[in-house]
Amino acid sequence: MPVARAFRWSNFAASLAASAALALGGCMQTAGPVAVMQPRADLDSMAYGQPYGAPQPVVVANNGGGAIAALSNSFAASPAPVPVGYAAPMVVRNGASYHLDAGDRLRVVVYGQEGLTNSYAIDAGGSITMPLIGAVPARGRTTAGLAGEIAARLRNGYIREPSVAVEIEAYRPFFILGEVLAPGQYPYVPNMTVESAVAIAGGFSPRAKRDMVTVTHTENGGAMRAVVPLGTPLAPGDTVFVGERWF
Questions:
Q1: Which of 3, 40, 77, 122 has the fewest CB atoms in 10 Å of its CB?
Q2: How does DSSP classify residue 63?
Q3: Are strands 174-178 and 239-242 parallel, antiparallel or unpaired?
Q4: Per-residue pLDDT for 74 more than 70?
Q5: What sign results for the dihedral spanned by CA atoms 190, 195, 199, 201?
Q6: Within 13 Å and on the Cβ side, how many CA atoms surround 24?
């Protein structure tokens, strides 16, 4: 009988000790604050941020650490991505408002003066050279403006009442580079677009980026570069660059 009581007492003492150890272990563990985040739609929105203009989610820092919490806080704290802007299509200025430049070929008609009537190319300096009056600046002028300048010079000691007409015989060429089958220099055709320029150059290469291209337009000594869609009109002398897609 004393042996049985001692056995029961030892079992009770062991159970009590185990319960106390479990209770103490539970009291020593504390739960850290939990990060509160707005739900994200998918992995792309987590990696690249919310759409431009959307409010940024408010995040409570997770003191407990962890790779997921650190990654989430890092993306939440990053600034909103800047939207990509594409330039408006450039207007082709042909006809009466077209501005001449080096490479254009002109037909100058001086009525009643066959020795002056001829075809003239605008040289690298931006001028044409005619008999009697020599070099006449043409860069940046319209055909009407150039005709008036020629008439004024001829009137100054050569012809009493000159009648002059200037028309464009051939526009300066355009250039196309990058991911096309035959890059190079090609004659400009009125009312050209980027798409027709690519077709003239043999079409896209297999690695070409086919939705947007870069066009460089030069006028009056200044250059403008813009990312434009394929339907954008081209002007004489423009340079088209077709980029390479990533994948």
A1: 3
A2: T
A3: parallel
A4: no
A5: positive
A6: 6
